[in-house]
Amino acid sequence: MTETTYRLAVVAGDGIGPEVVAEGLKCLAAATEGTGIVFETTEFDLGAKRWHATGETLTDADLEAIKGHDVILLGAIGDPTVPSGVLERGLLLKLRFALDQYVNLRPSRLYPGEVSPLREPGEIDFVVVREGTEGPYVGNGGALRVDTPHEIATEVSVNTRHGVERVVRYAFSVAAGRDRKHVTLVHKHNVLVHAGHLWRRTVEAVAPEFPDVTWDYLHIDAATIVMTTDPSRFDVIVTDNLFGDILTDQAAAVSGGIGLAASGNVNPDKTGPSMFEPVHGSAPDIAGQQKADPSATVLSVAMMLDFLGHGELAAKVEAAVAADAAAKAESGLVRSTAEVGDALAARIRA
Amino acid sequence: MTETTYRLAVVAGDGIGPEVVAEGLKCLAAATEGTGIVFETTEFDLGAKRWHATGETLTDADLEAIKGHDVILLGAIGDPTVPSGVLERGLLLKLRFALDQYVNLRPSRLYPGEVSPLREPGEIDFVVVREGTEGPYVGNGGALRVDTPHEIATEVSVNTRHGVERVVRYAFSVAAGRDRKHVTLVHKHNVLVHAGHLWRRTVEAVAPEFPDVTWDYLHIDAATIVMTTDPSRFDVIVTDNLFGDILTDQAAAVSGGIGLAASGNVNPDKTGPSMFEPVHGSAPDIAGQQKADPSATVLSVAMMLDFLGHGELAAKVEAAVAADAAAKAESGLVRSTAEVGDALAARIRA
Ligand SMILES: CC(C)[C@H](C(=O)O)[C@@H](O)C(=O)O
Ligand SMILES: CC(C)[C@H](C(=O)O)[C@@H](O)C(=O)O
């Protein structure tokens, strides 16, 4: 048996993060058992506790240490005791940006057994390719005369041809590997004319490289309507960082809830480790109570395995989550976070 | 009988605009018949046709002429034969900005008989108070090295204490007049920290003026989840221009469709005329075919009457639309735009 060893950086984070990550690692162990694939994990103490103790979010040394890993598994970041934005910008977004994770990959599937809040959801199976390193997320804002009647606050969305082109090309390559081979560009080019037209021109330029792939365009406001009335129409959506943030939460909601929404912050060029995390937040209100559903983290582990080239193992993990979702719907049992993790690990092993 | 005369500027616009506006005016006539309230209308030839003929979107002379009116009724703006953004920015947004229509008021109700795409919509009855003159809509973007590999495009969201405070105060005053008296601020202050914190601090500062009104906060991504899973939870939402654009289309979708979504672009200080328009677009694919539902325009007329202080007439018009929606659901009849308008006018008169 060949041995393959991966260095996995674990950032459990805040709130329910540690609980769901524990189950993610449990399922990773189950999936790799006896395969010769080994994950050497390093835990990173990052998040609210660290910030309260030291004032640090992510130091240069942390970042360097993380860069020495192949992949990252992240739980959740954010805590009400820390000023809003400090951990999000200083830790989560800093990782995405510093490691050039320009593809934020967010699949949506309505698993059998999962109940969509939509009356007629149809067959939901699409992927949002959200840009991860530009747009209004760049942190190029500022404020003047703060807390006076003359305060002015700005936020600058920065979009480059380089940044847009690489994520658009990635989205088309994802579409090329799928059945329907269709890309929908979502933006708001009738108002955000400079950024929007850059996105549109870039899609027009890249599309001919993928003659099998068709594409269309929707404004972000119209996209939320289609996401409500006809989500099965989507195959691959490509969009900017902020629109992708909004649309993927809505997508998670229509496909049965944020409990099953996984994501990968991918650096396809591998100039830095890619990071896998559930779409949900840290949910401080239920933290430490074993109430969180770890399925989204387990699906993120599946995405990580797939990214590393272990598609079969990924499929096994995903199948376990799908089967568990169906069984759960039948039994109606309320289970703890660890019980769900145990059940998933058992299915993966079976 | 006292006579009251209002000067109404009519901008029918593009696509289905002229068709739905005709029915709006028909219902306005029906509502005011025999009341002594008279609307003197001036039609403004603005939109795609004018632009193709003259290259003009909204001249200074047009704007001056419009300013001489009390209110504006607008159909829809936008056409695929005009470069995206030209009419939206040069006409629709120019009107909103130049006339300082800083409150974009967008109520959502699930009328009896209307079918929500949600399985369990609950009682949907909320109002979105969308800021109308700031945010990423200000047009402060630009592009450099266009159409080269080094292109960079920016969009600047501008937010002022002045601009935020007045719309927040308006939202709280709307909430104070409603049963549940609750305001939800929607933003993304964990990422857009400068703008987001300005919004939050402003709400914190204004809230004490309204001791009966409670408030909470949701990130825009989380708001799209609640809009999907529990829209009846909302009472008054206050948010920025772009988030409001996105959220009100989603709101229209969950409450039975864009066919019933009305809006008012209100200048509460009356330093310029307010403008009433359906939320839907110009729908060029069905233009001229008498297929458009004029109900949203008729409801916009109701909002206009309410704004002018004629709450009873507004209620009459709204009741007609509600009754028609219920009757339509039972009969299942497909009617032309004019037939719907006739039916509504008859109900208003009855
Ligand atoms: C926590 C927050 C900064 C983050 C984002 O906005 O990207 C989250 O909402 C997400 O989607 O991963
Ligand atoms: C047509 C467009 C510019 C407009 C907007 O974005 O405000 C529309 O979507 C709306 O909501 O009224």
From TrEMBL, chains A, B:
Superkingdom of origin: Bacteria
SMART domains in alphabetical order: Iso_dh
Enzyme Commission number, as recorded: 1.1.1.85
Keywords assigned by UniProt, alphabetized: Amino-acid biosynthesis, Branched-chain amino acid biosynthesis, Cytoplasm, Leucine biosynthesis, Magnesium, Manganese, Metal-binding, NAD, Oxidoreductase
Cofactor (UniProt): Mg(2+); Mn(2+)
InterPro entries attached to this UniProt entry: ICDH/IPMDH (IPR050501), IsoCit/isopropylmalate_DH_CS (IPR019818), IsoPropMal-DH-like_dom (IPR024084), LeuB_actb (IPR023698)
Positions of Mg(2+) binding: D221, D245, D249
Entry-linked Pfam families: Iso_dh
Main location: cytoplasm
Reactions it catalyzes: (2R,3S)-3-isopropylmalate + NAD(+) = 4-methyl-2-oxopentanoate + CO2 + NADH
Span of domain Isopropylmalate dehydrogenase-like: 7-344
Uppermost EC category: oxidoreductase
Cell compartment(s), UniProt: Cytoplasm
Chain positions of site Important for catalysis: Y137, K188
Cofactor note: Binds 1 Mg(2+) or Mn(2+) ion per subunit.
Record-listed NAD(+) binding positions: G281, S282, A283, P284, D285, I286, A287, G288, Q289, Q290, K291, A292, D293
Membership in a protein family: Belongs to the isocitrate and isopropylmalate dehydrogenases family. LeuB type 2 subfamily.
HAMAP family: LeuB_type2 (MF_01035)
Role description: Catalyzes the oxidation of 3-carboxy-2-hydroxy-4-methylpentanoate (3-isopropylmalate) to 3-carboxy-4-methyl-2-oxopentanoate. The product decarboxylates to 4-methyl-2 oxopentanoate.
Protein name (Swiss-Prot/TrEMBL): 3-isopropylmalate dehydrogenase
Source species: Demequina sediminis
Protein encoded by which gene: leuB
